[in-house]
Amino acid sequence: MKINSEWKLLGLIRERIKDFGVLQPPDITAPLTDDCAVINTCIANALISTDISIENVHFRREWATPFEIGKKAMTGNISDILSMAGIPRFAFVSIGIPRNIDTEYVLSIYDGMLDACDAAGVYISGGDTSSSENIVISITIYGAARGCGPVYRNGAKPGDGIFVTGRPGSSLAGLELLKSGDQDKYPSLTRRHLNPPCRIGLIDLIVNKYAPSAMIDISDGMLSDLGHVAEASKTGYIIELDKLTVEPELLFFCEMTGRTAADYCLASGEEYELLFTSNHALDDSFFDGIPITRIGEITRNGRLLKRGGLIVEKDLHGFDHFKD
Amino acid sequence: MKINSEWKLLGLIRERIKDFGVLQPPDITAPLTDDCAVINTCIANALISTDISIENVHFRREWATPFEIGKKAMTGNISDILSMAGIPRFAFVSIGIPRNIDTEYVLSIYDGMLDACDAAGVYISGGDTSSSENIVISITIYGAARGCGPVYRNGAKPGDGIFVTGRPGSSLAGLELLKSGDQDKYPSLTRRHLNPPCRIGLIDLIVNKYAPSAMIDISDGMLSDLGHVAEASKTGYIIELDKLTVEPELLFFCEMTGRTAADYCLASGEEYELLFTSNHALDDSFFDGIPITRIGEITRNGRLLKRGGLIVEKDLHGFDHFKD
User: Fold this and answer.
1) What is the DSSP letter of A30?
2) Chain centroid to CA B227
């Protein structure tokens, strides 16, 4: 079925949300029907973030299924709430769709978004649709701050440990494999690029055990995002490259490319791993098989990378959409 | 200057917002820098709405200045908050920009948005940027409900009067003039399409004097939007075509096209006039030169148009993005 009516499509999207078995939370009224969603804000702080995903910039139809496209777009937004220690609650989805795209394709994008929402307790509460030359997915997400308050980027202090969840690096390798048409060689790497998880399952542990002083999610790349923390906190950092852990398949991939796993680990964006600082004298831990690794320390100034006790300077940057 | 860095562009946008002389409201922290804006929600109900504007669907670069494009996109969002009797407060702006567009052009879009925000007391609190094939502007707006609570679409009751602000109709005429290249013939009509006002100046009066039972803004077209109210309220309506008032220039334009001014008034979308129902026995009023006109009545069922006491049936619909 081709999309020939905006209102019909909106009706189908509403049905899909209901069919998914999502119960409307009690603190929202008028979702998806009036001009605005109405949220009863019996919480001290609301966290709001917005992200836009555009076809051929953030995703390609020939690389990802519509389910994966929708899931990743929503996951990135949920991760933004987690990165400030918030509880994700409501999402608002605007979508632009080319006229020649099938309704089922659009609903599969929503299925992917709903899958990510389901895992995080998020309710799609409003949105807009339009025709468009390329697929555009713009999501605004609303979260509640925890009792501890939001965790900002600017709270890192010299002496704080720098911690990272998971094993970043694979997403960039997966992207390179997709670009070169070799996606089947290392399926776990491409899967990681197309289906990155967010750390909804770790956030309670991080907040309660580490009491993070600053936090960010790795969306631009570890070095870029740590740079954001250092800049906001007016500090420096030392990263110990020997502490970085990556997926085993990335090591095999690196033998082929001749670059180091650390290169990928530091530069890889769209990972949605959490990077945080903490003054608790904690070392590495594991939770549900996911490592939380102490990879370095916040310093007064300077941005240094160490390997085997020696300082190595690097100049790696995250992906910048407008870079030539 | 061409856009070659997303972060540089974000920095320029932040500066533009500061240069505009906007003071950061006390109930928001971490705007434009962290992953989320943090809003202190000392209000009972938050209203959130989102709208997407896409080049060549909602606007054309050859018709409108970047200032007009930005202003109209923001005005439509502000209007969504007004249509539920809310107080617009914060906006989150995601923008997709083709690589060959000049930075000054993008900042002019923001100037237009800031101009609309300034008139309504709205603060741009966050956003995202991306490259894109066409210009995409996705805005999510956050408002506070008034003490009276939000006014929904579903509150209309049989016997309520139907009221409309301003003189809708010109926007559609302006669009037709732009499409046919005759935009200079009736400049006030094209101006109305490119620069529609929203009714921030009337909303206090409407809420206090009329206590609206249902309200909506005219974005799809008067008949479509009244249809949304009737459907949600499970009622019908009678519109008295003789009561519809339009801009004088629209009458001259209609002599040329052979269609009636009522045709334009009922079908014209993107007007951002408010349409509301009220059981207060009030007749027409004027405020700052803007009429509030009683154009009909909510009934138990049926959708009727009357002219000179006679019933005329019509089947006019608002603009639908996916219609063939």
Assistant:
1) S
2) 17
For the record, the structure tokens of A298 come out as 């916040």
What pTM value is reported for the model? 0.85
pLDDT for residue A2: 62
Query: What is the DSSP pairing of strand A285-287 with strand A161-165?
Result: unpaired
A298 Ramachandran zone, left/alpha/beta (phi>0; psi -120 to 50): beta
Show residues of chain B in contact with A83, CB under 8 Å. Answer: 35-36
**Residue A266, token pair as written in the block:** 């530091």
Q: Do A42 and A27 meet the contact criterion of CB atoms below 8 Å apart? A: yes
Do B128 and A51 make contact, defined as CB atoms within 8 angstroms? yes
Question: Which of A257, A254, A260, A298 lies closest to A276 in space, CA to CA?
Answer: A298
Instruction: Provide the 8-state DSSP code for A43.
Output: S
| Cβ-nearest to B140 among A30, A46, A92 | A92
B8 — pLDDT class (breaks 50, 70, 90): confident
- CB–CB contact A126 B49 (8 Å): yes
Query: Residue A28, exposed/middle/buried by CB under 10 A (0-12, 13-18, 19+)?
Result: buried
Provide ipTM, 2 decimals.
0.81
Return d(Cα B36, Cα B15) in angstroms, integer. Answer: 19
Q: Computed from CA positions of residues A12, A15, A21, A24, in that sequence, does the dihedral angle turn out positive or negative?
A: positive
A283-305: per-residue pLDDT in tens?
A: 788 888 899 999 999 999 999 99
Query: HEC string of B157-211?
Result: CCCCEEEEECCCCHHHHHHHHHHHCCCCCCHHHHHHHHCCCCCCCCHHHHHHHHC
- Cβ neighbourhood burial of A258 (10 Å; 0-12, 13-18, 19+): exposed
Find out whether B219 and B72 touch, Cβ atoms under 8 Å: no
